[in-house]
Each structure stands twice: as C-alpha cells, then as structure tokens.
Design a protein that fits this description.
Distance between the termini: 22 Å
Shape: globular
Strand order of the largest sheet: 2-1-3-4
Mean pLDDT: 87
Helix content: 25-40%
Structural class: alpha+beta
Low-confidence stretches: none
Number of strands: 4
Number of domains: 1
C-alpha cells in the first residue's frame, strides 16, 4: 500500500477579504478535507513559506499552496486547488492551456483590487460564522509543514 501523500497547505493573507472568501469557498467544497489552511502571519504559515524557499512578503499579495512537490503560486495555486477538488471544479485545471504570463497577469490584476480588512487573527484569517468549526479543523500545524519536506 503506497504511503499517503501529505495534505497541501493553502497559505493566505488573513487580512485580505478576497483570500478569506476563497478559503471559505474552499472549505465548503473540499468535502474530503484534502487541503489544510494557514494564515501567512502565523507561525505555521511562515514555516510553510520558509520550507518552500519563499520569502514571507510573497503572501502579502499572492496565494501559495505548499505541496510535497514544491510551492504553487498565483494562478498555479488556484489551479492546484481546483484540480484537487475533483469534478466539476477539476475542469478549471484547463487554465493551464493559457500561457502562464497571461494567467498570472489576470491573477495580479485581481490581487491589486482585493479588499483589505483587519482580521481578528491574521494568522488564520476570519472564518464566516457558519464555518468556524470546519475552518479551525483545517488549520495546518508545524508537523503538517514538516510532512511536506522531502526525506533527507
């Protein structure tokens, strides 16, 4: 029996209304709990970025998905989530046919216009009222970050 791959960790800006909304959308649709979450301002989010060789500042404007195969950023991060959710969301993986420069350009335009708001806890964002329990159950730990690292 093959070993279970560690869960990817979605690292997001807890002060970003769009990022918080995306994470809420993800939790509602990820019924198999394939993805974990971590706010970029917290210990786990910082550890995930560091383990992927990324600077902390990247999470100020970019969604990051930390995977066992390395980091996915910007449009590739969104694609990773869509493909990981299964049908019908998996169909969104077809964005790979659009040149990266174009799809990341669209991502950047959206990111520039995203709403900023103070989060109660930027280390994990602000869960919507009906998702508090599920949101907290999906918070990644440092052990989850360690599990993503390739064996030495």
């Amino acid at each position: 029996m093959p070993a279970k791959r560690p869960s990817p960790i979605v690292v997001f800006d807890g002060d970003c209304g769009l990022c918080n909304g995306f994470v809420a959308w993800l939790i509602r649709r990820d019924r198999e709990a394939r993805f974990l979450i971590a706010g970029s301002a917290g210990e786990v989010g910082r550890a995930a970025l560091e383990s992927m060789g990324l600077r902390q500042e990247i999470a100020d404007s970019t969604l990051v998905v930390a995977t066992a195969d390395g980091p996915r950023t910007r449009a590739d991060a969104v694609r990773t989530v869509l493909v990981g959710l299964g049908w019908p969301w998996r169909a969104g993986g077809a964005i790979v046919i659009v040149p990266r420069r174009v799809r990341d350009g669209v991502y950047d335009q959206i990111a520039r216009r995203r709403p900023r708001r103070p989060a109660e806890d930027p280390a994990c964002g602000t869960p919507p009222v009906g998702l508090v329990e599920q949101w907290r159950a999906r918070l990644a730990t440092v052990a989850d970050v360690t599990a993503l690292a390739p064996p030495q």
